[in-house]
Amino acid sequence: MSSAAEEANHKPEAPTAPAQENTSEENPLQAKADELGARGNEFFKEQNYEQAIALYTEAIETCPNERFYANRSFAHFRTESYGYALSDADKAISMKNSYTKAYYRRAAALMALGRFKKALADLEFVAKRCPSAKDAQDKYTECKKMVNKIAFEKAISVQHQEKSVEKMCRDMEFATIEDDYTGPKLENGKVTLEFMKSLLEWYKKQNKLHKNFAYRILCDMETLLKTQPSLVEIPVPDEQKFTVCGDIHGQFYDLLHIFEINGLPSPTNPYLFNGDFVDRGSFSVECIFTLFGFKLLYPNHFFLARGNHESFNMNQLYGFTGEVVSKYSQNMADMFTLVYNWLPLCHLINKKVLVMHGGLFSKDNVSLDDLRSIDRNCQPPEEGLMCELLWSDPHPLPGRVPSKRGVGIQFGPDVTEAFLKYNNLDYIIRSHEVKAEGYEVDHNGKCITVFSAPNYCDQMKNLGAFITLKGNDLTPKFTTYADSPHPSIRPMAYAYSLMS
Questions:
Q1: 27-154 falls under which CATH superfamily?
Q2: What keywords does the record list, in alphabetical order (predicted)?
Q3: pLDDT 10s digits, 421-453
Q4: Contact between 467 and 355 (Cβ < 8 Å)
Q5: Looking at 210, 309, 395, 432, which residue is catalytic?
Q6: Is 76 a catalytic residue?
Q7: Which CATH class is domain 166-497?
Q8: Nearest 10 degrees: Cα torsion 250, 253, 257, 263
Q9: Residue 11 has what DSSP assignment?
Q10: Angle, alpha carbons 187-188-191 (nearest 5°)
Q11: Domain layout of the chain by residue ranges
Q12: What is the pLDDT of residues 119-173, one digit of tens each?
């Protein structure tokens, strides 16, 4: 590690001056690689991570060096390509097994994937090598706490498995509604359109829904979602518009903007939100109760799919659990975990367009019946159909390759074409990836990505987008929009301290 301050500031490492025997005159390739690496660092500082990755890659191809691998690992980490970040950190360590920064980078990637035990070993190495570096010592201590916390929660998980949200609601007394509470109220315990309109205005003003109503919405959501199959079929009438939105990631004021430009949900204005409703953005509670409220109001015209962030590990790391505990309680956070287990995994529009959060599969001839038969009432596994529905990504080359994320796979245009032909489908819609224009059309128009969180995490400068189509014309139409102003609460404000 070049310095504790450098680690604390999370900067890529600058090129070091070549040793005397490797001067620019004697080693022009090294000089060229260092120049490429320095340019990559400048793009990194500007948060142009893709360009930084391209320059680090060129530097590696010119003259391989552990510093370039470590810096590229960090850039991949910032683009959430945790599998690539892990691979680059491994390569840096293989080139120089005493290179402390590479262990630090590998630990970050492992933590992002929820592999805390392995991360702890790397952070222990860093802490021993840098006993005076406060940042390294703090991260080691925090990671150790997380490992112990997970072990404790696993020990009591058997008790939790026997619970349901309904039972948890019965076990606790709903809080009395204070006389001075002037916010939205359920009518006879039910969501109404007036309640939803009032809720949106209440949330705009940064108020909190009373926990009595919040708990009731969770109880009713579990009851409703238990009746849903893992693959939900959506019939869209010929002339009716249908809207598909991608990730919103706790960006409540951008969710409001979608409704402003596209209309509130209704039986004649149906929506599908395609996973990753929460985490990272610091208004995830507002987002999820808005979406759950509309699902209860219009169960046959408002649809929700599970994303990879509707899971215990992701919520622990990226802020949703911390936000729920801050605004309500740990008990409510536990209830969300149970409700998320019942979210459907994919949707089929007019039997021709399949929508899932992540993507396709590591094996051929997966049928729609295979997807219908998935037992989804669990935390997402690290392999198999459910995992790949939530985590996989397309890539431009034929075939399948390991995932850049470290979970799921990457699938090529031939895989998409074969899947569509096998199931008599027109195309797939998926989300899961930031796109500069808010959407991207791949695989000869057969694989469409939609991402609905503009200026993701207040730093990516991307547009958001949603898709509209009609029952008699399934051709997708794209609407894009910029981010909306929001209160000055930073993204990841509630995230686990090692990830924020």
A1: Tetratricopeptide repeat domain (1.25.40.10)
A2: Hydrolase, Manganese, Metal-binding, Repeat, TPR repeat
A3: 999 999 999 999 999 999 999 999 999 999 999
A4: no
A5: 309
A6: no
A7: alpha beta
A8: 80
A9: -
A10: 45
A11: 27-154, 166-497
A12: 999 999 999 999 999 988 988 998 998 888 877 776 665 455 567 787 777 766 5
